[in-house]
């Protein structure tokens, strides 16, 4: 079942944004979600993401971060992604700079889907060939195709 690729649209992928700070990158991803999915209160979504960040790091290691939150600002689970080149220092527990970010938000009512997507994403991001493919994708379409090919 394609649980991730149906939630990550090409319009919500950033390749090599200029923003340097984690918060600015997260804000840009939230704004992409708001524009693409018609989220009425992106400020609330951003606040929910940042509140979750205060609980513990959402860096998974191996250069990946998956900021996520439950939020009343969304009515279904959605994902935005960024490839960061050069990688940025997000103060990850393993000390590795972050090169891949997947920002995910979903409503409280969809907690089961939220956990399934988060779990699958974590598994995939621990696969070096998957990460390398995303890091070298030459377009948003190619980035999404790599995910779609593994999202079965």
Protein described:
The mean pLDDT is about 95. The protein has helices at about 20-35, 40-55, 110-125, 130-135, 140-150; strands at about 10-15, 60, 65, 70, 80-90, 100-105. The protein is an alpha/beta fold and about 150 residues long. The longest helix has 16 residues, at about 20-35. The chain has a single domain, classed as Mannitol-specific EII, Chain A (3-Layer(aba) Sandwich), CATH 3.40.930. α1 (about 20-35) runs antiparallel to α2 (about 40-55) and α4 (about 130-135) runs antiparallel to α5 (about 140-150). Strands 1, 2, 3, 4, 5 and 6 form a 6-stranded mixed β-sheet that branches.
Write the topology of this structure:
Layout: E1 8-15, H1 22-37, H2 42-55, E2 59-61, E3 64-65, E4 68-70, E5 78-88, E6 98-106, H3 111-125, H4 128-135, H5 140-150
Parallel strand pairs: 1-5, 3-6, 4-6
Antiparallel strand pairs: 2-3, 5-6
